[in-house]
Structures are given as structure tokens and as C-alpha cells.
Amino acid sequence: MAAPARFVNIEDARLRFGDRVDRLAPFLTRVDPLADAVVHELAEGRVRWATVEDALARGIARVPGAPAGVRALFEHVEHVPAWVDWGLVDRAGSLLFRAGPLGGMVLGTKSLVSGYAAPGGNKPLVFSGRLREHAARRLNETARFVQAVCRPGGLRPRADGYRISVKVRIMHARVRYMILRAGSKHGAGAPRWDAGRWGSPINQHDMAATMLLFSLLVVDGCRQLGMHVSRDEADEYVELWRYAGYLMGVDDELAVSSEAEGRRLGELIAATQGPPDQDSRDLTEALMNAGESQAATEKGRASARRRAKLVRAVSRALVGDAMADGLGLERSAWGLAVPVLQRAVRAADLVRARVPGSDRRAVERGARYWDRVVRLGLAGEIADFAPPERLAAG
User: What is the C-alpha to C-alpha distance for residues 284 and 126, in angstroms, rounded to an integer?
Assistant: First the structure.
């Protein structure tokens, strides 16, 4: 079988993973027909966004007259698969809250950065402008999304995490719709989206990889910074994001239900992944500068620049030298602070393990931290996760 253009080191990958490489390849062109149908109905004026919001808040049975596409999507998301264990889902998110600020640091410096490193998977972000134009805003919306998913009860039907997950699914379909209809990038008939190089926009391969960014890589990053995460905690956290992925349209074949399954899929994806490109570096730079762009005063911007140096050093430690070099995350003396941070986290974990009630208090503090991050980050604005109206300027 011919190797897809986006896969690299293909023969080495086949030697290591066998025909799993070729079985993964078709997912580069598979997308999400249920969400795409809703976007078509919205674009054709057969349904209003307010109707989708109504179905999210009340359930599709209470929204008479909804068109076929909307009904089909909601029949899917309102069906709770038999494998969903609500007790497990409700407690799994406590891992993120127990991590507190550490979890936020890992999300930004490892999970998101690793996503930007993918030269094919990062293209919808580039074309939509969702990071380059409004990096701080999108970072805060991501924090809101993760917080909502991880709260106890957050993924129950009509809860915040459930509603945001479905909205993000439709938002992805809207971006895909606009990219494929955007026409030429530079005129002269040159295609804006190169399907031969990148596959379909926001395809199933990339959707599954994104779920690993939010689940397995958060576990790995917390461990790298010194936090103890048991195998059971890791498995439950991956299972939580399996259900979030179900709501967001990830194909069942690519869903993972344990740390071990996630690691096998992640290693396969990494083995066929190309090196970071210029878009990877631009997106990473926008993320690293998000704090400075959000500051209102010169003093605040100076403080944000100092924090960014530490953030870059932590990111380099978490993603490794090879990826960091490709992303333009330079070495600096701030790297000496990372072992200090690791020792502090390990010491705090030892105390927590020995003092009764420490876990509960850590989760409560972490929940307050995430509330504060979202409140200050959004600065009173509403993160509505509505489908975008336009792409970035060409």
C-alpha cells in the first residue's frame, strides 16, 4: 500500500507497528458526518444556532421541528454508551483539580505545544486564525473547556462539559466546512487546503490525537513534574476523555480506554509524525506570548515576559530537546528552575500522602484555582463556543 503523504518514516514505522500503520492511514480522510450535516443545515438556513442551544439545554425531544441533521446528532450524543461508568467519570477529573496550577502548566506547556508540533494537524488552527489572532482568548477558552469536562457531573447530559463538548464538535465541523469552501489561497487557482499533504481538515486521526493531548499527555506531564499519579488514576482519566471524545465525534476504532491503550496509539501516531514546521513555531510563539498580550500595563507586560521565560523552560523539559528545538524553544538558564520545581512537587506529594484529608483539600483548592483562572482569563466575557463566522485572512 502506498504511504500517505503526511506519514513519515513509514517503513520504520511498519517494521515497528506492522499493518497498524496502514489501518490508521484511512482516518486521515474520515471526518464527522453527523456534525457536518448540522453545519450544512445551519449554512442553508434550515436551522438557527439558537435551536441547537435549545436542544443542548433541554434535550432534542423538547425541540419540535428540528431538522434531520440536528436530530441525528442529538440522538447520538444523548445516547449514553453501556461502557460509561458515571461514578468513574465523575471522580476521574479530580486528578486535574488535585494537580491545581501544575495541571494548568502541563496543559499549556506540554499538551497544547505537542499539538502545535504536528505539521498536518495544526493547519486548521492556522487557517481559522484561532490561535494566531486571539491566542490568549483561545487559551482561556481551552481552560474553560477542560475545567467543565473534569468537574464532577460535568459530562452528564445538559451539564456544562457536555454542552461545550458538543459545541466544540460543531465548531470543528464549521471550520472544516469553511476551509473546504475557501477557494484559492493566493489566487491563480492554487488550492487553499492541500488534502494530499494534510488529509481532511480536523480528521479522525487528528481528533483522536487531540484526546490524547488532553488525557495521556496531562498524566505524563504531571508525572514529569514530580506528581504521583497511580495507574488506576491514569486509566480513569483516560476513560473520562474517552467519553468526552465520544461526545466530540471520535470514531470508536480510535477511542482508548486505558493508559496502556493510549500509549500504544500515541506511539504509533508519533512514529509517523513529521517534524514541526514554521506554523508549529508560530503557534507556539503565540502561546508563549499570550500572557504578555493580555497584560494591560507595561509593568504587567514585563512581568509576563519574565514568566514566559520559565514557561518556555518548563515546556522544553516536558516535550524533550528534539521537539523543543523544532519549535524554537531555546535553552536558557531558566531550565535550572525545573529540577527545583520537581523537588517541590515531590515533597508536597509526600506530605499529601501522609496527612489524612489532604487529597480532598487539594482537590478543593485546585477547583478554586481553575475557577479563578477561567474568571480572570475570560475577564467577564462569555465563552459561548459558537461556530466561527469566518476564517483568518488569507
Answer: 12
How far lies 23's CA from each of 1, 31, 46, 200, 347, in Å? 11, 16, 37, 16, 45
Asked if residue 357 belongs to a domain, the reply is yes
- Domain holding 135, by residue range, is 21-185+199-378
Measured CA angle at 13 (ends 7, 16), to 5 deg: 160
Give the Cβ contact number of residue 82 at 10 Å. 6
Q: How far apart are CA 28 and CA 121, in angstroms?
A: 10
C-alpha distances in angstroms, 60 versus 53, 57, 292, 318, 344? 10, 9, 43, 43, 49
Judge whether 34 lies within some domain: yes
3-state secondary structure of 184: strand
182-206 as b/e: b if 16+ CB within 10 A: eeeeeeeeeeebeeeebbbbbbbbb
Burial (Cβ within 10 Å: 0-12, 13-18, ≥19) of residue 282? middle
Contact yes or no for 112/213 (Cβ under 8 A): yes
Assess contact for 272 and 10: CB atoms under 8 A: yes
- CA nearest to 220, candidates 337, 102, 117, 330: 102
pLDDT given at position 393? 55
Give the residue carrying C-alpha cell 496550577: 101
The answer to the question of residue 145 being in a domain is yes
In a domain, 307, yes or no: yes
**Nearby residues of 289 by Cβ (< 8 Å), 6 or more positions away:** 135, 308
Q: What is the pLDDT of residue 360?
A: 94
Overall number of domains in the chain: 1
Q: In this predicted model, what pLDDT tens digit does every residue of 239-295 receive, in sequence order?
A: 999 999 999 999 999 999 999 999 999 999 999 999 999 999 999 999 998 887 777
The C-alpha cell of 56 is what? Answer: 443542548
Instruction: Indicate the pLDDT class of residue 2, thresholds 50, 70 and 90.
Output: low
